[in-house]
Write a structure and sequence with these properties.
Length: about 300
Amino acid sequence: MEGAGIPELLQQVRRLRIVAGRKVSDLMAGGYHSVFKGRGMEFEEVREYQPGDEIRDIDWNVTARSGAPFVKRFAEERELTVSFLVDVSASGVFGSQGRSKREILAEVVAVLMVTALRNQDKVGLSLFAGSIQRHLPPRKSRGAVLRCLRELLAARPVAEPGDPAAALDFLARVERRRGIVFLASDLLDATPESLLRSLRRARRRHEIVALQIVDPLEEALPAAGLLQVLDPETGRRAAADSASEAVRRAYERRARERERTWKEVFARAGVDRLRLRAGEDTAAALTRFFEERRRRIR
């Protein structure tokens, strides 16, 4: 994707938009609407509980005073503000399944952007590595989505560790209106404690959804003999003897520990995470994610 000329870049944008459009099925669009819409953010009234009302909407203070259950009612938002924080650090250029992690995340972001546009929502984009590389404020138009995709595809990989915590803190400063935030990263260089603090701060105003991309080779090594490994963000090289069972087990153990850490971080932050493995069907993964989230909310 990187280094493309203008004609090639425009062709990539069109191709990505077409792919995204095909993958935005009615089922997924409906899932998006039921998960993020209809849970309005503007308080309207308190009224007596009726069969079918959500338990989570009960106003416990009014219920305690009156002796009968009452629920809070909210006016449905006409539109949402949907912001995308996308990691463009150089670790995203890696890929063992025919596409880089960066390309897979770009497709997922494109699908979500097209879905948001079809639901009449505003869409914004912030690209980050160790700092913010590009910021496009939320807008509601087809042209705004195309510009976001163009910037995403044109962005060059940055040779520095990605810092999703700093990206979340930046968005909290510039986007004051409540909205949905999709944080897309491989999280390879993120600091768990720092990210947990930033997630909790951001959740005071926004609803956060994490999109984590993982390549199978980051989970397990094949028995392929001596491997030379290059860190694209620091330039450091290392050698690993993958023929050694002890080396492979240690590698897999570290990967499992890393996954347990992130699972705990997002659970403690109260943030949903979609963990995407390179090579899987992204549309199917998104659809399952929305369906599971919808069932849990209900």
